[in-house]
Design brief:
single chain, alpha+beta, 3 helices, 160 residues, two-stranded antiparallel ribbon, elongated, 4-stranded antiparallel β-sheet
């Protein structure tokens, strides 16, 4: 009886291979869902950190706070002038700690608007490409602050 396959052995091999394939497929599905959630949460965390650095820092390139929740108009104007120079965009990313994305680089858009009357005070976006692409995941944080005269400001931060 050497060299012969027993029917029970063939059934056991088929069942074993089915279990292995089912397990590998389940792992593949769950890992891809976990990876997608990880990158979405990472974008959200980066956007919150960028908005915190923008609004609650009194010094440096990006700090526009005078005394939270009051923002300094002079610092907003200085940041606007800084953003107008295309070569400063990598410095902005570095100061927001957005220069270490796996498989590429982060992009950021900072926008500060008066609420009444509607007027854009700052719109800092990437020098090339779309300011907000429609085909990638992006995180958007919106905050409200006041200026020195008591006017309301709408602060928006996008990270993608």
């Amino acid at each position: 009886m050497k060299g012969q396959l027993v029917f029970e052995f063939v059934i056991a091999v088929v069942v074993f291979m089915g279990i292995v394939l089912f397990t590998l497929n389940s792992l593949n599905t769950n890992i891809s869902i976990f990876t997608g959630n990880y990158f979405a949460y990472s974008l959200e965390n980066k956007a919150v950190a960028a908005s915190e650095a923008l609004l609650k820092t009194k010094s440096g390139v990006i700090g526009v706070e005078k005394d939270w929740p009051v923002l300094d108009e002079v610092r907003i104007a200085a940041l606007k002038d800084f953003c107008l120079v295309d070569e400063n965009y990598p410095k902005l990313l570095s100061s927001l700690n957005l220069d270490d994305k796996p498989f590429g680089m982060y992009n950021v858009r900072l926008k500060i608007d008066w609420l009444d009357p509607p007027e854009t005070r700052l719109d800092c976006k990437p020098p090339t490409g779309p300011s907000l692409p429609g085909n990638v995941s992006a995180s958007h944080i919106k905050r409200i602050a006041v200026n020195e005269t008591g006017g309301l400001l709408n602060i928006s931060v996008w990270v993608w």
